[in-house]
Amino acid sequence: MKSIQSRLFLMLLIFIILPYFLTVFFIYGYTKKLVEQHELEVSHNQMEKASNELEQYFADLVGLPYVTYRNPDLFRIFEDGFQDSIYFNPIAVKNSIETFYLMRGEIRQIRFYIDKSKESFTVYNAMVSTRKSQPDLVKEDSIKKLYHSHSKYLIEPPHPIENYNDAAIVPESDNTIVLTIHHKVMDVLSNKFLGVITLDIDLNAYAHLCNSLVQNDEESVLLVDTENRVMYASNRDLIGKPVPSNLLKSINNSGVKKGKEIILSKTLSGPLRQWKLVKITPEQVLFHDVRQTAYTNILVGIGVGLLGLLMIGIISYMITRPIKLLSRKVQSIEAGNMDVPFHDNGQDEIGHLEKHIKEMMNRINLHIAREYKLEIENRNNQLRALKSQVNPHFLFNALQTIGAIALRSNSPKVYGLVTSLSKMMRYSIRANQWVLVREEVDYIKTYLSLQVERFGNELNYTIHLNETILERTIPSMTLQPLVENFFKHCYEEGFYDAQLSIYGEIQGEILYLVVENNRSSMTPEELQTLRNNIYTKPSEGSYSMEHIGLKNIHDRLVLNYGIKAGLEIDTNQGQGFIVRLMIPVESKFASNELEII
């Protein structure tokens, strides 16, 4: 039994500490959800802005080579080559090229490839290299891909800057990581391929646009192209490499929460069509402030709980101490000490209780002597009553004695009948137990042997049950009432030629046991009334006592096996009566360890 002190502690836990911490967790979860929604909304807005700026930035870079079409001196080189152009002005061309290079500060290197002369030259740090013959340039993978595509440009992943013409103007110490844009130069009128302008772009310019999404060092951002290559990443080791497989699936879904990270992705358009801008925010960063507030509340709650425990301890000790003393006195009385001293001078509830207990003990002591004598007399009377009861074993032994006398008197038939009756009485005692179908059948055969002697006629019956069915367990006295009904409604009504059949089979998960006769029957109206009575709940309505046995069997089957079990009745087209029992083969109720309901 729990003490009052432990109950007070339990009440403190249930009504103060537990609600407090539940409130803290609820507020934490609600705040966490709001923070997440706010952060997602802010991130979406930031990504929308960064996406627009990236699209505009690359649109400017991709459109930069179109300046060539507006520069007659530079464009004639692509049309006629250096040697064949009658308008070739080296100084004007050099100025045009240097001006083109200086248009964007992030341009690290430009390569001009002239398809007519199969030559190329580069511009680095506003210095023009010498021309170099490169007849196989269009066979390079990126140039070949651009040449055969309908697109005007192609963007390569970031890579270390390359000295295209092995020109002296590019120092070997320059290992800058650049993004390369190849632009195809075409004749507008004839759509003839004239050459390629290659731009090497420093990553810092568009890296600044991507990094505008990052608010702290633990967040990261990626720019991924259509071939799932990293065009930029906060982690420099990923730049120019394929996207890690563990991120690829999440990137394809916007606002995916993966483990302890929140991953947002935005599909770009324009020159970066189908590229994805990805922002990865660790959950611990997003909910840092929320967690700090929750931890503070939890610490405050622990402090309040400890103070409450101390307060409850002091109060409970002052309240429960006299109760514990009184409880020990009561336990002493339970142990047989009837002279426990009580202090009845207290003015509180405990004092009044001790006073009443003391008065009660005085009255009890006054009645003990008289009650003790009466109890002894009652015990003697009960013993005499028990001795006068007939023990069932005495009755069985008496029947065996009668059977032995019948044998000595050369009356084996009488001995057989007495033995059958003894077996039936022993079996009927097991009315609340589980039995094998074989035992129920043996009991029925014994019952039928006695009925043959009663009616003096040849009894027509058949029992067909295979070994599998005979080894199944069922509640005792399940089939016997149906056999008894056979004699009540057939033999006692004069149908001495009636045939009794008992058989069974297992179909699927159901065991079917059937008892039928070919004589006694009933009208369809009587059959329907009987069915209504059988399937009525025990607490509903009233029904005829004539067929109470059928209803009891049905109710027992349902209670022991569940709703799949039960009893069905039918007539053989008005020429007999059929009772079919349905018992689930595999049922948690069908166990010899359970008590019959």
UniProtKB/TrEMBL annotation:
List residues of the HAMP domain: 317-369
Classify the protein's membrane topology as the record does.
Answer: Multi-pass membrane protein
Keyword Transferase tagged: yes
Tell me which SMART domains the record gives: HAMP (SM00304)
SUPFAM superfamilies tied to this protein: ATPase domain of HSP90 chaperone/DNA topoisomerase II/histidine kinase (SSF55874), HAMP domain-like (SSF158472)
Q: Which domain of life is it from?
A: Bacteria
Any transmembrane segments, and where? 7-30, 298-319
Q: Name one GO cellular component term.
A: plasma membrane
ATP-binding as a keyword of this entry, yes or no, is yes
Keyword annotations from UniProtKB, A to Z: ATP-binding, Cell membrane, Kinase, Membrane, Nucleotide-binding, Phosphoprotein, Transferase, Transmembrane, Transmembrane helix, Two-component regulatory system
Where in or outside the cell?
Cell membrane
Listed GO molecular functions?
ATP binding; phosphorelay sensor kinase activity
Q: Which Pfam families does the record cross-reference, listed alphabetically?
A: HAMP, His_kinase
InterPro entries noted in UniProt:
Bact_2-comp_sensor_kinase, HAMP_dom, HATPase_C_sf, Sig_transdc_His_kin_internal
Protein name, entry field: Two-component system sensor histidine kinase YesM
| Species, as recorded | Neobacillus bataviensis
